[in-house]
Write a structure and sequence with these properties.
The protein is α+β, with helices and mostly antiparallel strands. It has 17 helices and eleven strands.
Length: about 425
């Protein structure tokens, strides 16, 4: 049933936590406690851990977690089915971020299933469609070159803070129409919201984000500009202005979604590049294949999951699921499915083209996918042109924080000058 985004109502979805809250219809043989996202084994090598799930777990199982129990789907085929069938696997109530039930809003458009989903996507499509993103290429390339030239003479940097975070976040703030001098504050909010694994911290962070964005929205209503927030605040699909709740939910979702994913992806890629000089040379020697390179690196280093609510009783691989259950597509694991991507942990720029799930698929595919691909492409081109030889700093340990976006927060690297 379509929901009314202008009059949001908290869904009656119970968040189950722990073994004593496993629903009665879940077979005991399918109940596991994997430690995905926060367990010690996962944090040692997250992507190896997720690739190994195909050998250790059934394709569909029920995972117990302190952040909420849910079904997990590992296979590429199953993830495609789930992502393409919102009539069974709905986004309403699926986002994990806490909201005040007395001042509730929907995350738009991620929680709005068809048929109303498209009217919201149409508002920002001019910014995030391939043609819109290409208009940003000159800006992104200029930013990338400036950041590289700033660190190049030093012969070392923490890639994460010197480039990996700064490039995508600064571009995102330009698109949103938000001030660059607030970047560090926004990054702190993103880390607390996505990596604290503490719902109290997440709730306080959401309060900070929502208070700030309410003020910004009012400013954009009074003084329009070319940014995404202003575009949303003044949108009138089918001649009907958006309600305050719709504007707010749309802006909050874009804000949260734009601060961490490309950062994590770049960090993962640069750790691998620092450890594989022969593969760096291969990329440099194949400039015409840069798009293939980007796709394969996105497959190998996917950083997010995709959660859904079971909208009606259904069955997946013979497993009975009930309305109100939660299910999560483990997208990195789907991209390691050996039945689709043979030898999945190997980076192969000449793989036969298959749908990768780094940005999900279907009606809720990531709005920023084209932008992310362009940012990664430009980062590879401009960095390897100027700093083709680099390694991890001797003795450096790459560590991963817990959370729903998978990537190290520090990548110390060195190079000859």
């Amino acid at each position: 049933m379509a929901i009314d985004a202008s009059n949001p109502v908290p869904p009656n979805h119970q968040r189950l936590v722990g073994r004593d809250q496993v629903p009665a219809h879940v077979p005991e043989a399918l109940v596991f406690e994997t430690g995905l996202s926060f367990g010690r084994e996962f944090l040692r090598a997250p992507h190896d851990f997720m690739a190994a799930l195909h050998d250790r777990m059934p394709p569909v199982y029920y995972d117990i977690s302190p952040m909420g129990n849910a079904w997990h789907a590992l296979r590429h085929e199953d993830a495609l089915y789930i992502l393409r069938h919102p009539e069974f696997f709905s986004n309403e109530g699926a986002p994990p971020f806490p909201r005040d039930p007395d001042d509730y809003f929907y995350f738009i458009p991620i929680e709005i299933d068809p048929p109303h989903h498209r009217k919201y996507r149409n508002i920002v499509d001019p910014l995030f469609c391939p043609q819109g993103v290409l208009k940003l290429e000159k800006l992104i390339r200029h930013r990338a070159i400036s950041l590289i030239e700033e660190v190049h003479p030093e012969g070392q940097c923490d890639f994460a803070t010197g480039f990996g975070r700064t490039l995508p976040v600064s571009v995102f703030l330009d698109i949103m129409g938000l001030p660059q001098d607030m970047r560090d504050t926004f990054v702190t909010w993103a880390v607390d919201l996505l990596h604290s694994h503490d719902r109290a911290i997440m709730a306080e962070t959401m309060k900070s984000i929502t208070a700030y964005l309410r003020q910004v929205i009012e400013e954009k209503k009074a003084r329009p500009d070319d940014g995404a927030i202003s575009l949303i605040a003044h949108a009138a699909p089918d001649g009907q202005p958006l309600s305050d709740k719709e504007i707010f939910g749309f802006v909050v979702f874009l804000f949260i979604g734009g601060l961490d994913t490309v950062f994590a992806t770049l960090n993962n890629i640069w750790v691998w590049l620092a450890q594989n000089p022969d593969r760096r040379r291969e990329i440099i020697e194949r400039p015409g294949d840069i798009d293939k390179v980007v796709e394969e690196l996105l497959r190998r280093w996917s950083v997010v999951y995709s959660g859904r609510m079971i909208a009606q009783d259904t069955e997946l691989r013979g497993v009975q699921m009930k309305r109100g259950d939660r299910i999560t597509c483990i997208l990195p694991a789907a991209n390691f499915d050996p039945t689709v991507f043979p030898d999945p942990l190997t980076v192969d720029f000449d793989r036969p083209r298959k749908p990768i799930l780094a940005f999900t698929l279907g009606v809720h595919s990531c709005m920023g996918a084209h932008l992310a691909r362009l940012e990664i492409k430009i980062a590879l081109q401009e960095w390897l042109k100027r700093i083709p030889y680099f390694t991890l700093q001797p003795g450096a340990a790459i560590t991963y924080p817990p959370g729903g976006v998978i990537g190290p927060h520090h990548v110390p690297i060195v190079w000859p000058v």
